[in-house]
Amino acid sequence: MRTRLLLLTMLLGGPAFLWAQPGSPAAKLIGIDSLLVKLLDDYNVAGFSVAVVHKDSVIYAKGFGYRDYEKQLPATPQTLYAIGSSSKAFTAALLGKLFGDSLSLDDKVTKHLPQLEFQDGREVDVTVRDLMTHRTGLTRYDFSWYVFNSDSRDSLLQRVKYMKPDADLRARWQYNNFMYLAQGMIAERMSGKTWEENIREHFLTPLGMTRTNFDVNDMAKDADASIGYTVTDKDSIKMTPYFEIRGMGPAGSINSSVEEMANWLKTWINNGKYGGNQVIPAAYLKEAESSQMVIGPGLPGRKHPDVHLANYGLGWMIGSYRGHYQVEHGGNIDGFSASTAIFPTDSLGIVVLTNQNASAVPGVVRNFIADRVLELPFVDWNTKTVKKDTATVDTASQEEDVARIKGTRPTHVQADYTGMYSHAAYGQFAIGLHGDTLKAAIGKQRVWLSHYHYDVFELKDIDAQGNADTSDGGVKINFRTGLDGQVEGAALSLDDPSGNAVEFKRQPDAREVSEEQLQAYIGTYEVGGMKISITVENGILFMDVPGQTNYETIAQGNHYFKLKALSGFAIRFEIDESIGRAIVMYAIQPNGTFKAVRIK
């Protein structure tokens, strides 16, 4: 039944060949539909669309499968998909156009974006070209923007200062989305317009890409928009929510169709021209399609010795594909995958967009089509499956059980784990107590905390309908206590280049303390000849230390207060019930506890 439906979809997907004279590149693709449609079943993919450009003509355009799997709405060449990191070529080209033929891409980045700072001050040596070629020495840190997402580009860029570089400048190629955010912000600063306005003005409008947009909410309003999907452990197709990537937009927020992306490919194939207009400066185009940085060894492999070279241009991957020069960039974002490829010396361009998460399909389709048009010997690129090895999954599950120390308990009551947890390079999340369950909002995810052992908990998903995951396994969070025994932080395994867990500092929730009780603490206390004043303002207790500052505190209950600005510092009061006020204040510090007696 599925096969019959898919064959029907092929007919509904629109004309594949716009012209196919005998011996033409288009004619070489006749019959390829049967090869491509098979991928739908083999990879459990909902749908995909493909367009092929030769010189200044679209020679093939086709949709396969469904843009909406539940409603069985067919994918077409006009279907909109999120193209993910295939957006990077647009952002880099924007700078190429704004800088003009002077190609001043070797300007120091401080000249154009002074707010970009690195942890070790290397921004004084970093150039715009370094940003474009992923060679600043900073690794990905993708959890920072992906998990702890933000619409504020300034806020995201500020996090770079707290990320630790793990390579010298220009020593190693390391993919980094933040550096493409920085390029978008350079364009904004140079032009006084948003990155989105710039891309539309300089590329989308001149290329007639009228339906291409930058926000998944705008894409959802289109009559021919695709829904994103993933493949479950049981090999079923499951819808996945759109991911809003507005803040990190310059690195990958464009949504487009193969029909409109074909115009983008024509421009690159024709030396930056489209419709007689120079859309991309020719000098920049040569730079962008040339090797700027070595990605890795890129040696020929045993299986495919004619596929080799691994370099990076400006927003493009550079490689040698079976004797042909290939310029390509993929894209992945929740529910979508993409490949945009150019073969400059062959005047060939191929774009493949799919509504499957982290899919191999775009690469497989691209290779099948390239082989046909370039008249290369047949290679069955369809050798990868999406089926999982059940035995491997079972073994992993057993290892989890062995690692768990049963019979242990948390060291604190649940309320002690609540509060705001923050890290300068990532962002923040809050843990709250809801009934008898600890819950957190970590980026776009809603989770509940299931005790694993000691002060380690597992994070379990809560879906949009409020259903809680109760299965075994999950990301773990490890709480840390300070010398005073109080919870001070929580560690998560993210993408720190050191390989260590990333610790988020806890800002505890304030406990409610009555005004009457607060009045009992007000006074002057003396320790070692130092007089410390305790005051209350707007329901908040302050500790004024001579020669230092007036420290704000956070009430923790039981006459205990943490200093907001200093980790590991707190004060506790001893109350004389007969007079209803504090007579002693204990200053709790990492180097000891000091007793201060009330003198006033």
Structure in words:
By secondary structure, the chain is an alpha+beta fold. It contains 16 helices and 31 strands. The strands form 6 sheets. The chain has a 9-stranded antiparallel β-sheet, with helices on both faces. It has an 8-stranded antiparallel barrel with strand order 16-17-18-19-20-21-22-23. Strands 24-25-26-27-28-29-30-31 form an 8-stranded antiparallel beta barrel. A hairpin with a 2-residue loop joins strand 25 and strand 26 (540-544). The longest helix has 15 residues, at 177-191. The N and C termini lie far apart (88 Å). Residues 1-13 and 385-398 have low confidence and may be disordered.
Concise structural overview:
By secondary structure, the chain is α+β, with helices and mostly antiparallel strands. Helix content is 23%, strand content 30%. The strands form six sheets. A nine-stranded antiparallel beta sheet has the order 3-2-1-15-14-13-12-11-10, sandwiched between helices.
Approximately what portion of the residues adopt beta-strand conformation? 25-35%
Global structural class? alpha+beta
User: What's the helix count?
Assistant: 16
Q: In terms of per-residue confidence, which ranges show pLDDT below 50 for 5 or more consecutive residues?
A: 1-13, 385-398
Q: Tell me the distance between the termini.
A: 88 Å
How would you describe the oligomerization state of the chains in this entry? single chain
Radius of gyration: 29 Å
Shape: elongated
Strand segment tally: 31
Characterize the main sheet: 9 strands, antiparallel
Q: Mean pLDDT, nearest integer?
A: 91
Strand order of the largest sheet: 3-2-1-15-14-13-12-11-10
Helix content: 10-25%
